[in-house]
UniProtKB/TrEMBL annotation:
Keywords: ANK repeat. PROSITE patterns: ANK_REP_REGION, ANK_REPEAT. Pfam families: Ank_2. It comes from Populus deltoides (Eastern poplar). Signal peptide: none annotated. ANK repeats lie at residues 98-120. This is Ankyrin repeat family protein.
Length: 184
């Protein structure tokens, strides 16, 4: 196997030659679909081709339960994120085997532009918690993502959102206060 970029280019050529080539890919045979590779690398046009021919790929999770949306989010590919959200906005709720959703990953990686798009598309996804019971706000503080924290606090008006506790009983204010580098 070549590099992911080589694989994506090869898949694009195959797709141009044989529009039915994607019918051969199934979740049982491959850990990642061509859409996973396209999303990870930010290949918007390739993503559009795959999504139009095989929209089910937008819902597929790899063996780590990672979706194409999560990969595009992690790599900051905003246009690919937007395109994937058009195909299946419910993937905002998909959590990987560590309980992290695309919104969680956007916060951890500091992808505020992507976070805004995800929240605009599916605001209720901000309520998802990680396996450790952390809210998206806990992750903002834990990963020093102050711009994301400000955006979320200003945007989400859900009752109890800012006072939620993680599995250790800590609120966001507890975490911020314990870390002297973050102003409360």
């Amino acid at each position: 196997m070549g590099t992911p970029l080589t694989e994506a280019n090869s898949l694009q050529r195959l797709l141009e030659e044989d529009m039915l080539v994607l019918d051969g890919f199934t979740r049982d045979c491959f850990a990642e679909t061509p859409l996973h590779i396209s999303a990870m690398l930010g290949h918007l046009e390739f993503k559009r081709n795959i999504s139009s021919q095989t929209p089910v790929f937008a819902k597929e999770l790899d063996f780590r339960r990672i979706s194409p949306l999560l990969l595009a989010t992690a790599n900051g590919h905003l246009e690919v994120v937007k395109a994937l959200l058009l195909v299946n906005p419910d993937m905002c709720d998909a959590q990987d085997r560590d309980g992290q959703s695309p919104l969680h990953i956007a916060v951890i990686k500091g992808r505020v532009d992507v976070l805004k798009e995800l929240v605009q598309t599916k605001p209720e996804a901000v309520l998802l918690r990680t396996e450790r019971g952390e809210t998206i706000l806990h992750l903002c503080v834990k990963h020093y993502q102050i711009d994301a924290l400000k955006f979320l606090v200003e945007t989400i008006k859900e009752s109890g959102f800012t006072s939620s506790k993680d599995e250790d009983g800590s609120t966001v204010l507890h975490l911020a206060g314990a870390d002297r580098e973050i102003e409360v």
